[in-house]
Amino acid sequence: MPNANNDSHTPPSTTELSQAQRRAVSELLRVSPVADDLARRFKEAGFTLALVGGSVRDALLGRLGNDLDFTTDARPQDVLKIVRPWADAVWEVGIAFGTVGCRKSDFDIEVTTYRSEAYDRTSRKPEVSYGDSIEEDLVRRDFTVNAMAVALPEKEFIDPHNGLEDLAARVLRTPGTPEESFSDDPLRMMRAARFAAQLDFEVAPEVVAAMTGMADRLEIVSAERVRDELNKLILSSHPRKGLTLLAETGLAALVLPELPALRLERDEHHRHKDVYEHTLIVLEQAMALEAPRDHPGGGPDLVLRLAALLHDIGKPKTRRFEKDGRVSFHHHEVVGAKMTKARMTKLKYSNDLVKDVSKLVELHLRFHGYGTGEWTDSAVRRYVRDAGPLLDRLHKLTRSDCTTRNKRKANALSRAYDGLEERIARLQEQEELDAIRPDLDGNEIMEILAIGPGPQIGQAYKHMLELRLEHGPMEREAAVAALKEWWAEQQG
């Protein structure tokens, strides 16, 4: 079945197609022992099984992992009967949507019954109906590059919508019309942006046009599903590509309106840098500072990337035109932190993630008070204490926030931050700064002052912590004397 949308683009070369096919053969040989074994069991039970969707796409790209997606004419209860004796573990989380999950050796497997999904105009959840043929299943898929299958164990390649050609051309198209596809599931508009960011593909003009015209349909999709797609986009290798597409189609105005709002009007009398473009550069520079995947805790960092993306969202609300012609954004970090909390809460992020990202947004300007390195040791201690476990991310965010083209200014900022990190390291060696505690704990305070638990102990503890931050560690005798002095003042 030809793809009606394929007439307008140049067909990929035979070489590109053959390279993709060779990569696929290599990848499929690697997973064959497990995939073929499972397929034989389905065949013996009278059903068919095919590797499908993202698994076929990734095999053709030479990046198939250990997550395998299959489709079958067997209904979910029949799938359970086949996989339970075979798999190491089975889960039924997605069974209402026709999907059975299982684990075999090192592979995580999902088997989904041929299906179609459609929304009605008021529902937030897809309605699932089962199909009877793989062709019917594939036409309901989101994009042609995800509408290919390999029937097993025969290894028959099924590509009714020319997905292989689109894959070689690195373009995202829909099997039918994009309007039909996005009506079936409006979240597919977000997926277009996500796949563009993940795969570094272009989105076909007719798909972009449909995304723009149907953006409002995204409102019926649950916040959780939108958030999950946004996370995948932000954690991708090319998030700028996806975010730009969201902004240009109007989808960002529904999902993350603070992003397009950064496109502030500029005029020749009040010059300031393009905050929207600055934000995307900060995001890319933060990505460059992430630890490699093979390092402990390495790889894409959602907290850091969200903080980079949201760090300046308070600027539109705080913009002021000064008499001297400058533009100011006083306290935009405080306003931005509140806006970050509100937006992330609306998108149903976890409380911990909201707290961490909001804190980074609030602290991202703190370093600029460091000036020429004249902070006292107590100011450095407070910087570390306020950042807490986010200190390493704050270092990366602060460094990423320098996008000036003035090399002298950029180098001066970098040297200043180098100096601050060196001072932090020295103080940490001297004082174990990350675990700052007063020189006297609560029990000692009660014993010295001869009083029981109560608010006065909390006040005394806070006072001793301030002394610790201001002056560094104290000998016990000096700490006791300082506590008694404070207590005498309270009694006076």
TrEMBL record:
Gene Ontology annotations of biological process type: tRNA processing
Pfam families membership: HD, PolyA_pol, PolyA_pol_RNAbd
Enzyme class (EC, first level): transferase
Renumbered residue ranges of the record's region Disordered: 1-21
EC number, as in UniProt: 2.7.7.72
Keywords noted in UniProt: Magnesium, Metal-binding, Nucleotide-binding, Nucleotidyltransferase, Transferase, tRNA processing
GO molecular function: CCA tRNA nucleotidyltransferase activity; metal ion binding; nucleotide binding; tRNA binding
Cofactor (UniProt): Mg(2+)
Keyword DNA repair applies: no
Transmembrane stretches, start-end: none
Residue stretches making up the HD domain: 275-397
Name recorded for this polypeptide: CCA tRNA nucleotidyltransferase
Species whose genome carries this gene: Streptomyces luteoverticillatus (Streptoverticillium luteoverticillatus)
